[in-house]
Amino acid sequence: MPIYHYKGRSRRGDLIQGDIDAGSSDAVATQLFNTGITPIDIAEKVRRQDKIGKAMVRLGKAPDLTELALFSRQMYTLLRSGVPITKAMVGLISSTGNQKLVDTLKDIQASLESGRDLSSALARHTQLFSTLYVSMVRVGENTGRLDEAFLRIAQFLEFEKDTRDRIKTALRYPMFVMIAIAIAVSVINVFVIPAFAKVFERQNVPLPWPTRVILGASDFTVTYWPVILVGLAILIVAAQLYIKTEQGRYNWDKFKLTIPIIGSIIKRATLARFARSFSMALASGVPLVQALTVVAKGVDNEYVGDHILRMRNGIERGETLTRTAAVTDMFTPMVLQMIAVGEETGSVDELLSEVAGFYEREVDLEIKNLSAAIEPVLITAIGVIVLILALGVFLPMWDLASVKLGGAT
């Protein structure tokens, strides 16, 4: 069991501190109250071996969703077959290919052998196992259905990986096109336009405004390209640092939902993730308020997570799940009606599973049509760029040809 360091006051007001073995901080507080001590601060004490274990898992490549899903499904199979957890860990350590996951499993095995339960051992590695993952395992331990918990987790991770892969596949073609356009424009600015500029200077003819704009942009690019590159690098680093802040991550996640075409897919995929994980947590026996808390941290979007926490706060005030969901203004009327029916029939988890399926089908349909939706935008952008370049380059060429022909006559 984990060791907690506490500080408290006795009945006479004296400061008392020490260490207690307990399953949670609430258990520590209960013990202290029973002995007449009012707790001031309770914190889990990190042992030296714990620090070593956490340092070990920072090395190497972190396991991806596929590896975590495979680990969860293997745990389900082994536990379903009646293999003890410690022996299951030994087998997984020898068969796992990811070194970081191997080091993590070794540390978990050591924690299990020292008397900790599996959920507490997993909770020490939050960089690999999410709060939702740990909560599902804890509920599985408490209900005696740990194998089913791992099965649900594996299915959830497999779906998550599939959704992310499909979105990446759909965005790959537009990204390649945009990169190609950027490279082409850069080459034209640096090499092609300056060559035409020398021709125009020798002829000494008045240039139309599109040509002057293009020549000005080309001159600026050729003269200040080091400054441009440094500025872009600073801008990228500053944006990354801003996104890592709490407010920056919140604003970025909110902005992603408003991006034309793509934002709708991201929003539906996030809501599908919320409904699926919320349904899974409720079906596994996680209390409603606790389920909303852990799901808010697992949707991978701070903006949506904040709305989920508002739902939790509303439920704590005594409001219904349907009402709190309606206030967030994130769900369609049909989805709200399904949630309301789930509340009335006592099958919220089943209806949320249907909601997740509804959003997943919408995401699948939009992903299939994503390339078709983006292609007109890309074609329009390419057409505008070609038109500007054509007007800027060929208009003065036509003027030069007119002058030559007029002089010949």
Describe the structure in your own words:
With 409 residues, the chain is mostly helical. Among the domains are: 3-45; 50-158, Receptor-associated Protein (Up-down Bundle), CATH 1.20.81.30; 262-368, Receptor-associated Protein. The protein has 17 helices and 3 strands. It has helices at residues 25-34, 48-57, 65-80, 85-95, 99-113, 118-123, 131-143, 146-203, 209-244, 246-256, 262-283, 288-298, 302-316, 321-328, 333-345, 348-368, 370-408, and strands at 3-9, 15-21, 38-44. The chain has a 3-stranded antiparallel sheet, covered by helices on one side. A hairpin with a 5-residue loop joins strand 1 and strand 2 (15-21). The termini are far apart. Residues 52-59 have low confidence and may be disordered.
Task: Tell me the strand order in the biggest sheet.
Answer: 2-1-3
| Number of helices, where a helix is a run of at least 4 consecutive DSSP H or I residues | 17
Strand fraction equals 5-15%
Strands, count: 3
Q: Please identify which CATH superfamily of the domain at 50-158 we are dealing with.
A: Type II secretion system (T2SS), domain F
User: Describe the biggest sheet?
Assistant: 3 strands, antiparallel
Q: In which range does the helix fraction lie?
A: over 70%
Distance between the termini: 101 Å
* Average pLDDT over all residues: 80
What general outline do the C-alpha atoms trace?
elongated
Structural class: mainly alpha
CATH architecture of the domain at 50-158: Up-down Bundle
Radius of gyration: 30 Å
Assembly status: single chain
Q: What is the CATH fold-level name of the domain at 50-158?
A: Receptor-associated Protein
| CATH class value of the domain at 50-158 | Mainly Alpha
State the order of secondary-structure elements, H for helix, E for strand: EEHEHHHHHHHHHHHHHHHH
Please mark out the parts with pLDDT under 50 across 5 or more consecutive residues, or reply none: 52-59
